[in-house]
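Action item from last week, closing it out:
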Amino acid sequence: MVRSTLSLGSPAILWEGDARQPSLTCSSVTHAAYASASGIRVMSSGETIHSADLAEGWLLLFIAQPEMRDVPVLLVLTRRPESVRLGDGLHLTFGAGGFGALFTSRLWGARRLAPGQTTQWTREVPGDAVAAARRWSQIFLRYPVDCDEIGWMEKETVVLANRFRFRPFTSAWGTPAETLAPLAPVLPLARSAGAPLELPRDAMDLSCPTKLGPLQAVKGETTLVRIPLPPRDHRAIIPADGRMVLREAIDWATGGLHLDSKTHPDPNVRNEGSGDLHEDLAQYDIANTMPFNESPCIDVYKWWYTFNAIQARPAYSPALRAKIDRYHKIRYWETLNFYAHKCLVRQKREPFSGVEYIIHFVWPTQTQFGYRNFNDGNEASSVTASCFTAYARYYGDWTTLRANWNHCRRLHEYLPRVNDWACMSSGALEYWSNAGFDMLNSEPYGNLAFAYAAEQCGRPADALLARCWARAPWYPAWLGSPSPAISNPSPRLATPGVDSRAYHFTEDGIMAAPNKMGAIGLLDTSKGTSHELALAYKTWAGERILAEQKAIEETTARGSGRISFPDLTQRLFLGWNLAGLLEKAKAGIAQRRERPVTWNSATDIYDLALLCVGDIPLFLSEWAPAEYVSGRCDEKATEVELLFLSREAAAFTVRLYSQKEVNEVSLNSVPLRNGWRYDAASGWLTVTVRGSGEQRLSVRLGKPAAPLHPYFPAGN
């Protein structure tokens, strides 16, 4: 019997068993290098070496062909074989007790060598290849099999401590073991891109590029990292007199929700009827394969295109606003309260961890080629959390979330599972095909949205854990390579020096496919992009974002690309001319009007609203647990009026950013002498509001006094 173990903290696969004649399937391998008593030697296919020939416990397998871009394979043994023969595979013969334990790995991770480079190895194996083989033969003897991780907050910094547990192995050659605690590769990748992370000073690069960055480690069993959270203030729209020039387009895009339509003439468009919800689900009735009540339910799926629509709520025309409010009442309130048919249809067991997840339209995992594949599940969970949090924030309906918190937590619990070492570490390299850019981009703010909701619902432990889960995927693979918009329309592998095409991984090795993931933009999350995400990228990778946006603008100026509203938002944050951005937005709307209106249009609504007022250094950030009903400011932003509805007896705090100093605050037309404070050093106004029912807050502004918030470029 042969057992295999894939460690999420090691590039090696551990094989154990008592087989006396194990074989490795490697029919394409032409040569194997090994250490003999007289130095490094190379055996060719058809040759056999014996026990005395092996002076060290490793073999390096490679393909010496002129056109081959090889990924050399490393084999590390713990017991001495009687013989090793290279033929249609690598055939080993052992004595009593069998092979015991051995390790297989890629010598240099996902790095693929130049065409024909390994043909030179038949004459002389490079010194760095021999050094890497010797180093890994020591590291694998302390094989990480478990990790305890704890996290805590120090002001605005997440601190993560990991303690690894290792299985020790001894080598028949007396090879000394080396104990190394790995760092998640995305962390040094983010550090190299400019993120202000505090990583261990003694971290060493293991020359093992992975899909999400370089693998680094520190000596010993523990690691400690500090990850400051980037600015993440929510930016609610305050409509400005005379500035809502895209309101008609906003109303049109909202029409993509089909608010009053029970059917739609386009059979390819998912119906968004406002009547019998079973009618909406009819096309998902796959009774030929499973009963209706067991097929995936799309109630939660119907949220996904709406959180940007909710955040644009203050910008709607009055007539449409009543309809969109009714729509969200159905889609959120009734779904969260377990509307007539099941929202929790059934669960699917994750094949490796054994954890069961709720299925909300997209099944969270699939098994492909025997390995775990996250089928859009992390994006689904992230956007779902963003959706129900946006709903509760804007409608002040925290009671529904509190009453159904277990349901909200179940919809979110996939994230702490996917956001583990399988996603962040080397894993076994080709065995972990985790997520694309859109999925990784959705995770940080999906987790932070859940943390915010947890705080409002009196769940501080859930909030802390979600903030810790949000820490790792700030910088997906995009940051490790030149901008896709500059050099190649396809996303690419993270580490410099690796092939510049997108990769996916199968059990047969690393497969290159230029269009595997499509031309996914930096800010794309498919279901809608959070503006806080754009702010984080601007803050931590400003120069790269600037280059990215300039390249995209040049491409679309030549008429060779579709105008992206999230990209226009990013350019707004970077200081592009607002008039020019509005013209591009109008052109983008014209592009979309050429197609049938679908519910996907709802992903654009917040960006359109923001472009109308985005250069005014003023925004509303906090008002929970009240409802933000409406707001307005005059064109010069000297006066602001905000209408809230409080359904709870407790006081609530309004938090408003204004570059201009605050001279007066009134509540329901009565000037407030106490209960408010403006901090000119930060620009934040905080107002404590007491009482239930409608609360109208008026703020009179003066001259500029505070520094610009990071949402606003210098020079505004």
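Closing note: The two ends are 70 Å apart (CA to CA).
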